[in-house]
Amino acid sequence: MENYLLRAISTDGSFRAFALTAKDVIAEAQERHDTWSSSTVALGRMMLGGLLMGANLKGNDKYTIKMSGNGNGGLIVVDANAYGDVKGFIQNPHVDLRKTSTGEVYVTQATGNQGVFAVIKDMGLREPYAGQIPFVSGEVAEEFTYYLTESEQTPSSVGLNVHLDDEQRVKLAGGFMVQVLPDANEDTIAKIEKNLQNMPAISQILEKNSAEGLLEAIFGKDEYKVLSKTPVQFKCDCSKEKFARGIISLGKEEIQAMINEDNQAEAVCQFCENKYQYSQTDLEELMKEAK
Ligand SMILES: [Zn+2]
User: pLDDT averaged over the chain?
Assistant: First the structure.
């Protein structure tokens, strides 16, 4: 299991933590959307954050997380659920700005340094929960941290990293989310805060020993218990039938116009770039159901 998420708890029960490594998940997003460096890292961090938050969900609940700022990347949208499925897109996939001397990728070139970070929690039949905060820095992890602490009132610390190689391909991707539990012990809080401050770079840890290494850096060896280890994957739930419902909702006239103009139609999923074709016969069938 190379792309996985760990759910853990500190041995004294003061903290819960989630850590993941998901190189192939972010690489798939890069390939599907043809993202360039800054866009890859911005979208990748959002997807990692989405997976970490999704790990706290139950059943079929899901999160939609949006970043809408003044960067060149435009809107970024990510969907994640409790099963480790994530999908996402960035409006402009071709933002590419790196520091000449070190190759360091400028993420805020894609996200921006001002904007709105919004979260919608979809709980099936119940009214969805929505919350939003202004950008903290545009670096993404800080937005997650601030959102969880302020809007969901769960004091948290989030770290996210997407590391690219010299060809701008995803080399490493992963992160963590640590949350203080209600009965937390003051001494433990102080200790974990110190550990987080002194923590080596996430990419450095992932390179050596993966997601377990992140938990060890946060809690110390043998100071945490892994509750579960589950796979994470890029997964889109789109289908020809789903888009067909969208076409039906356009109405008879609009569908007739498609037939008159092109004798066919094509739908492209913005989350995964899959394409669906509708022949004239398909469209005529859909028209029967349309108003
Ligand atoms: Zn799709």
Answer: 95
